[in-house]
Write the structure tokens for this entry.
Amino acid sequence: MGKMDKRSEILSLLALALSFSLFLFAYFPSSNPGLNEVESPIQPPDNWQRHVGHLVIVVIDALRADFVFDLHDQNREVPLPKISYLEKMLQDSNSFGCILRCSPPTVTLPRIKSMLTGRKPTYLDVINNINSDVLLEDSLLIQWHAKGLKMIMYGDETWERISPVKFVRSDPTTSFFVSDYTEVDNNITRHLEEELAANDWDIMILHYLGLDHIGHLEGPDSKLIAPKLEEMSQVIEKIYTSLSSKSYKDDLPPAVLIVGDHGMADGGGHGGATLQEVLVPLVVLSPAFDIQRDDATQVKTFQQIDLAPSLSFMLGSKIPRRSNGRILEELLGIATTDIKLDALLYNSQQLTALLDQESKVNDIHSEALNKLEQKLDRNEVQPMFKHSISQAQEELLNSGLQYDLYLLTLAISMIASSVGLRNEINLNFSTIFLGFLFIQSIHFIICSFTESILCNLSLLFPALNIYLIFCLSSLFSVKVKDLSAQISLILPLLPHTVSLLSSSFVEEEHQTFYFLLMTALTIMLVPKLARNEWPDVVRCLLCAAFHRFSRAMNQTGDKWKHLPDLADFFNEHENFKLCTFVIVLFLLVPLFRNTKVNVILNIVICSLIIAFKITQTVIIAQILYFFIFLKLVSNRKEYFFESIVFFCCVLHSETNIICIVIFIVMLKLLNTKNPVIYYILGKCLHFYLGNSNSLASIQVGAGYTGLSEYHAIPVICLLAVHTYSGLLITYSYASMNGCTQIMSLHFYKTLCDILLFCILSVMMRYHIFVWSVFSPKLLYFGMELVVFIAFSSLYYLFIE
């Protein structure tokens, strides 16, 4: 490939990434008010006071609702274990329990923000989950600090990262070392004895991570779950017993609040929108309660955002300005009738202030105020304010985002035109000038009847104009012969592109590629059978058998993710898994180049990988990185593929390494130069390794392989390599095997997929699946594009 071809390949990829980034910016608008918007115009009533003394908030990461309540899940033959102390206390009058519903994405940072601010965070907070910024908008932390309440925090470091105020004492813990589920919790519990005896704090925040780490490692059915829940049970009992038996702070009864930030999918991860991920328990224990209940009492479900105003009520602090939550009615039982009514009035005022003036809820609120001014029976006015609060919250939650359709349309046009940069650009001044005038005219017409951020960008929009003119002019200069050649190249893969129009096919995308691979193998097999080419027939049949084995290693997708797979079998038989893993891993030695030095180096690397998987020692992983780098620089072209394979093996589990080695055997057996086959194989390996289009399948712990502390860039890079190992392994092999068209095929196929899916996402932007299906897939498209650009640049600049 010539220098101009390489430059145009990379340039077109960068153009596509820039255009798609613009689309994501418009589709996922960021909303993070500054400090100038903190102060709320709605003031609490005069009798808005503190109702509890010491408050301990115990956040148990990934505590799904059925770890506390019996939800009678019909898909489970054996119910999940429970937190025994909470089971016991929920029968007591000094407790209150309910279920909170989260909104996707169900990862820690957005969920903590939701509990603190009382509103749904933006979807892009899933990206910031790895490196969160300070939370500047009004929140419980700011209001507690303003009231002079002293806070201490132990556990997940996310709290300290986002907190705009200083904790009196804290001991943050890194949340991403998922292999540790013991010390990460012991580091919190060891502080309890001292802190429970102290009296210089008002709020203690404890965020336990061990349960979440067990979920990532082995799922909710792990044998480690029951002991961990029992450990949490003992911790909660110790806290509540200690606070209840000591003298009350400010003569107010203490309270212990236990809540999950998000749930845990049946597969063990989280980030999606299944009930197991979005339903979490909330239990409040306090001598202030005197709740009468019977066996027929149903567990109620509320919104997670309701926690913010409820905690404001308990501690007498202002409700965060932009909160969409309502005070939980059962918590109001600790107050007198007058205080309860004033709390409802305050909550109603705060919510209706966020609505448009034309909203009918304002009329409901005004009517309730009139009844209150008429000094009617307060018990009669309460239901009116409750109705006002309920309607206001419903309207706020159902109000759709205001999308910038002009910016979205421009971004889609830029995505489509980015293909033009793969051709030679021949422009003259008149073409640029006329094109600029034409686009500017359309721009002024559109801005005359619609609102858009583009209408306020006096300098940036002309620059986008010129960029678009370059792309479109090059696109129109494409020769029909070249265009037809590219269309014929991706034609066999168009059924997959069309399948993206269905949300079910997006969730179960692996099934499409498994079908395409078996179809391709069948098409290859039939003529070989007719010609009696038995060695080739055996190779095809072996590939089909290896495919069947590999696809059974990790259940993926959505509908069958919870079913047992081969990885579960291997994990239940540790000795058998270790023996199989060692034997299969050393198969790489004869599969790779058999020069004397390379064989010795490969044996050393394989031995170190085995040692690392057994010990999980950081220093061994770092030594492995050194040897792999040494191997690559010794002969970049010959050992590029081998280095990538070993790098991926360091990041993946033993069962996934078995899949990787079997996949390399499949590549050797097929020995093809057909780019379509390589594209399908790369996608199949992506799903063999347990990936899906749900954020729950991302193994965050892989980003910390070989790291002793958090560093954003290495974590993101390692996580990207782990997630897209299928692409890297397949394309590096294809490139080394002389299949030069694979890069071009991937660009055109990705362009078609992104273009179609962006149009679909805009059309379905108010669909019920917009956050659970479309949004995660868009993020996966973006990350895959980044990985492919990095791989292409590395290959063109240093390897080829």
Remarks:
- Confidence is low (pLDDT under 50) at residues 32-36.
